[in-house]
Amino acid sequence: MPRDYRKEYKNYQGTEKQKKNRAKRNKARRTLAREGKVRKGDGKDVDHKRPLAKGGSNRRSNWSVKSDNSNRSFKRTKKARMR
What we know:
The protein is 39% helix and 12% strand. It contains 3 helices and 2 strands.
C-alpha cells in the first residue's frame, strides 16, 4: 500500500505541536551553523540528547552534533519498537 503523505501531514506533521517542535529543531540548526559547527551538506545533524518528543528542552545544553547515520537510527526491541 503506498504511503499517503497528504494524510500523514494533515494528521501529524501539520499539527501545532509538531510545527513548534520543527521550528525548535530548525533554530538549533541555525544557531550551530552560525557558530561553524555544522554546515549544509556536511552529513551532520543537531541531536537533542533528550528528544523534544519525549519532553526534552531546546536549551543549548541539550544539543550535540552527530553524524546523520548515528542520529537517525535508534536501538530497537525484538518487536521493532524503540527502546
